Amino acid sequence: MTKPSHDGVLSDLINASAAEVALPAYDLARRAHGHVVTYSPKVFIPLTKLCRDRCGYCTFAQAPAHVSAPYLSLDEVMAIAEAGRAAGCTEALFTLGERPELRYDDAARWLAARGYRSTVDYLATAAQMVLDGTGLLPHANAGALYRHELDQLRASSVSQGMMLESLATLAAHRLSPDKEPQRRLDTLRFAGELRIPFTTGLLVGIGETRAERLEALEAIRRSHLEFGHVQEVIIQNFLPKARTAMASEPPASDEEFHWTIAVARLVLPDDIHLQAPPNLSDDPAGLLDFGIDDFGGISPVTIDHVNPERAWPAVGILRRQVELRGLHLVPRLPIYPEHLGRHEEFVHDHVRPFALASADSTGLARDDVWASGSDAPPPEAPVSRVHTSAVEEILARYEPGYAFEHGELVTLLDARGGDFNAVVELADDVRRRLVGDEITYVVNRNINYTNVCTFKCRFCAFSKGPLSLNLRGDPYLLGLDEIADRVREAEERGATEVCLQGGIHPNFDGEYYLDVVRAVHEASPAMHIHAFSALEVFEGARRSGQDLETYLSGLRDAGLKTLPGTAAEILDDDVRAILCPDKLNTQQWLDVHRAAHHVGLHSNVTIMFGAVEGAAQWATHLMVTRDLQLETGGFTEFVPLPFVHMATPLFLRGRARKGPTFREAVLIHAVGRLHYATLIDNIQVSWVKMGMDGVRRVLSAGANDLGGTLMDENISRAAGAVHGQELDVAHLHELVEPLGRPLIQRSTLYQAL
Fold first, then answer.
1. Which end of the chain is more exposed for a tag (fewer CB within 10 A), N or C?
2. 3-state SS, one letter per residue, for 86-125
């Protein structure tokens, strides 16, 4: 059976068995969502259990006499949220009865006494307090709302939801005015018009027929095709509860429940995620066989207040069950990646910074507290040995020198669990075979000669602007004598290299960079001059009216030996338009390094990753630099530079993530080793960015070089990094000693010293 056409009758589905639709639904789920299955680590906040509706199956709704207060107080709300944050949750699920103030005077008086016009008004305040106070992302599940109410909640919630349940006229909804089908459809439409990431779903087994379930799924499909706002559909099975009108009704049969899941996957657009609650089934992992790709919220803190008799599954056990099916169980946010990726359209400006700060490069939840440049410890390595077929197939055909396709690189850069371990282990084996066990370093000094810059890179906290973390200070420009003094001091302290970089000062002409090189060379003729980003070279050539090769030849003749690979950031012009819109483009960066190689100057490849982009853009960067290396052979090392977020304008304005996760940072080194093998021998790890424990892990994932001792490292510290301005050789020995590998001082061009 194939995915049905929607221009005809769906009678074939109505008459099919769950077994007949299961396989095509499962295959479609895997094609649409890959080997990742998600859940949301949430805390459940039952803001009020009063409700004006009296659904025949519900035990959540209570009468005023059965609750201690009509609503949770704001203090109670914050206590629950803070417990969730401490337990690692990312979602604050607000579930509540619908419009209790229209039924109960107690609710109306409680709200009025505190200055709230309605339950939704109070919900907006509570959600805002949780968002601002804890960083948890509120998901508001407030039922059938009007357009202005949905709009009000948009400023304090990252997503909203309402179960459609059924469009049939059912006895279960006889006393529930908010379950009137058109009311629910209107809410679904309003959410689409407002571009709200929305959750909806069906309740199976409350008296509806298969045809009526298909009618509801078709309504959801049509709404999503018009607005693109439905992020997930929940298929929930009815279970009878004591002391309800439907207590004696039979539960939804497995046949009907499983059939509905599979048919939903076949009927709904591929980009809608499909969920079934894991605590309402005895074999939740078995639901994967019918096409789900999500288990919904699972709380380490709170019970399921809607189904209190059904405990949440243990995530560790569920993960093992999912892995037995060759899949990865991964935490997500209450907003899915598809809508977070369109955050300008689907996320309110106030909510956006919190959502991006909680996300990894795929738009799923960050799975560790580590951040580049911070002192937070890296997470333990995954214990899983389960490999997905996609990664297994790529690694099985790999040998050093293999030219990866773009999609293959993306797959490896997104590896998780056992796949992550397999990539890392292969990278370290390739490192051992190609360059041995030696770990190298260079004794060098950084000289950042000015922090004044005419360019406005949005990731940069070094160039002169508003004071940030007291690290940037006043604008400065070092004189040539001061630069020369620093070079002589570096030589006295054993440095063999000086690395010179700075802002693009408005008063510089092309001759300035030549003057700097001459001053350094005169101060220390033996010192290796490693200087000038591609932007500095490009601007120097432009301002002097020379072509790149002519200008670089002049720098070479004055004493320049090599170029750093900085100003690369991400070599993808769509990303550069966000990070550095007025900076040189991808082709110009490549042209500078091609010209440098042509005149006999070696350089390196850097990548500053983890701010706004993901694996697809990293893969593009890797491919264009490998192509240039095939052409010129002029790159000596690959240097990944994880984005340090803390004090950067882009992050402070709520437009960037917190840099890469540790998993992502390790993988880009490991995949770099595999990708450049036989072309670029050296993979460098930045101790400033990764920290000491992180460096050790990366040195066991394909890296072989520590870079420089970096006297006077300023740029990372300006962005908020805490790992110091210098690491002396004694500390380098302490760093690598647990690895049992020799530490060797090298020159800039990797000759042992």
1. C
2. HCCCCEEEEEECCCHHHCCHHHHHHHHHCCCCCHHHHHHH
* Cβ(203)–Cβ(162) below 8 Å: no
Q: List, as one string, the DSSP characters of 300-337.
A: SSS--SSSTTSPPPPHHHHHHHHHTTT-EEEE--SS-H
Q: How many CB atoms lie within 10 A of CB 552?
A: 26
Nearest to 571 by CA among 558, 583, 589, 555: 589
Give the Cα separation of 129 and 136 in Å (integer): 10
**d(Cα 292, Cα 284) in Å, to the nearest integer?**
10
| Measured CA angle at 738 (ends 732, 743), to 5 deg | 40
Contact (CB, 8 A) for 125 and 172: no
pLDDT given at position 96 = 96
Number of neighbours of residue 283 by Cβ within 10 angstroms: 11
Q: How many CA atoms lie within 13 A of 450 on its CB side?
A: 17
User: If the chain, 753 residues long, is cut into consecutive pieces of 10 residues, what is the mean pLDDT of each piece?
Assistant: 49 92 97 96 97 94 94 98 97 96 96 98 98 98 97 98 96 94 97 98 97 97 98 97 95 98 97 97 97 97 91 94 95 97 94 97 96 93 90 97 98 97 98 98 93 76 45 76 95 95 87 95 97 94 96 98 96 94 95 98 97 97 98 98 90 93 98 98 95 96 93 53 69 94 97 96
Q: Which two tokens stand for residue 579?
A: 């990070």
**In 3D, which of 264, 256, 147, 163 has the Cα closest to residue 209?**
256
HSE-up of residue 126 (Cα within 13 Å, Cβ side):
32
Q: Rg of the Cα trace of the chain?
A: 29
User: What is the four-CA torsion angle of 412, 416, 422, 427, rounded to 10 degrees?
Assistant: 50
* Residues β-bridged to residue 445: 498, 711
Minimal CA–CA distance to 259: which of 311, 208, 326, 297? 208
What is the predicted pLDDT for the residue at 461?
61
User: CA quadruple 610, 614, 615, 618: dihedral positive or negative?
Assistant: negative
| CA neighbor of 325 nearest in space, from 35, 40, 39 | 35
- Asked whether 145 and 183 are in contact (CB, 8 A), the reply is no
Kindly list the distances between the CA atom of residue 555 and the CA atoms of 78, 206, 520, 548, 549, in Å, as whole numbers in the listed order: 61, 79, 12, 11, 10
CA-CA distance, 123 to 265, in Å (whole number)? 33
pTM recorded for the entire structure: 0.94
Residue 531, strand partner residues: 500
Q: What is the pLDDT of residue 699?
A: 98
For residues 672 and 11, give the distance between their C-alpha atoms in angstroms, rounded to a whole number: 52
Alpha-carbon span 481 to 402, nearest angstrom: 49
- Residue 743's SS3 state is strand
Nearest to 707 by CA among 738, 678, 735: 735
- Report the Cα 328 to chain-centroid distance in Å: 16
pLDDT at 462: 55
